[in-house]
Specification:
heterodimer; A: mainly beta; twelve-stranded parallel sheet; 12 strands; B: alpha/beta; two-stranded antiparallel ribbon; globular
Chain lengths: ~170, ~180
């Protein structure tokens, strides 16, 4: 149903949805389709649709793929705003990310901007100048700092962040 | 940090180096985490024979933005004048009663290669070598560290087996001549 396609030229707006949403069963989320913006492609404009997007070229604008994944590859450059489920950054990105799922930043990434997501992972050595806000739904599962302080002081261990005895 | 995490919109600045474990640790606890790798910027500035100030000159945070700043051992990599200039910026960025976390190495112990502090299980910090970064070291005695931080009061301090000291400071006042 969804074939791999490649954006061929610049344009104001690239529509990725092959069919209008109302024609599909409501429970189906097509994950198999993906679009690749190739290394030699430059796009200025907005993209919205219902399949995954891989940026290996250059793009400036807004991406709205709320239930899908956006990947900015190692040679990819993006400037603007991304709304997606999961976002993976390996290239250069300047702008804001709004992810309902996870944002992954690899060691090759160069990111400047703001991230709002449910979870995040960052590889050591990535270039990052960011503001990060995570959904706090998982907060209950996190042990309190106070509890950790007790564990730390009992365990005589290596340094811990602002936990220990006052001299 | 627990109290900071409960405060709506609380902001923390982590000055790096970029370690995934630290970012996840802070981001899960603090409403707004700001991340900027000053260590890398300093490495690049010094490598390019530029003054250390170029490492933070590009940072344009609003006045009184942060409830807390984790400076790690960044001051240990700055000579006194550079450290004082950075602290002037920090005094602008931090809120009154904001907290500052500083680490410092023991000047009497042999100097180790550059390492960063990584938050691991049970809130332990582990020194982690970062071979890609090469920075000078200016470790200081307690008094010299305190002297770099006028307007801050020491709330807690810890010394660890490897000689690393951790300080928790609170910003008490803004003096017009220093802001």
């Amino acid at each position: 149903m969804f074939e791999r396609r490649k954006a061929q030229s610049s344009g104001e707006k690239v529509e990725l949805a092959e069919k209008p949403m109302e024609n599909r069963p409501a429970t189906v989320t097509p994950k198999e389709g993906k679009t690749i913006i190739g290394e030699k492609i430059t796009i200025e404009g907005d993209i919205r649709g219902q399949e995954d997007l891989i940026i290996e070229g250059s793009m400036k604008g807004k991406i709205e793929l709320e239930t899908h994944q956006v990947i900015v590859g190692p040679k990819g450059r993006f400037e603007g705003e991304i709304h997606a489920d999961n976002v993976t950054i390996s290239g250069h990105l300047m702008g804001n990310i709004f992810a309902t799922g996870k944002v992954q930043i690899t060691r090759d990434a160069d990111f400047t901007g703001e991230i709002k997501a449910r979870t995040i992972s960052v590889e050591d050595g990535a270039f990052l100048k960011a503001v990060i806000e995570l959904e706090k739904k998982t907060q209950k599962a996190i042990p309190s700092i106070g509890k950790a302080v007790k564990e730390e002081t009992q365990a005589t261990a290596s340094p811990s962040l602002a936990a220990g005895k006052t001299p | 940090m627990e109290r900071m995490g409960e405060r709506q919109g609380a902001c923390l600045l982590d000055v790096g180096p970029i370690l995934g474990a630290n970012i996840v640790f802070f981001a899960r606890r603090i409403p707004r985490l700001f991340v900027c790798d000053l260590f890398r910027h300093l490495h690049e500035a010094l490598g390019g024979k530029r003054p250390p100030d170029t490492a933070w000159r590009h940072l344009e945070y609003p006045l009184k933005q942060f409830d807390g700043i984790v400076l790690w051992d960044f001051l240990d990599h700055l000579e006194k004048e550079g450290a004082l200039r950075l602290i002037r910026h920090i005094r602008r960025w931090i809120k009154p009663k904001g907290m500052l976390v500083v680490f410092s190495r023991d000047p009497d112990r042999s100097l180790e290669p550059f390492f960063a502090f990584e938050v691991q299980k049970e809130f332990r910090l582990h020194p982690r070598p970062i071979p890609r970064l090469s920075l000078p070291l200016y470790p200081r005695q307690n008094r010299a560290v305190m002297a770099l931080l006028p307007g801050f009061s020491s709330i807690k301090s810890f010394i660890y087996r490897n000689g690393v000291r951790e300080y928790l400071f609170r910003f008490e006042k803004t003096e017009p001549d220093m802001s």
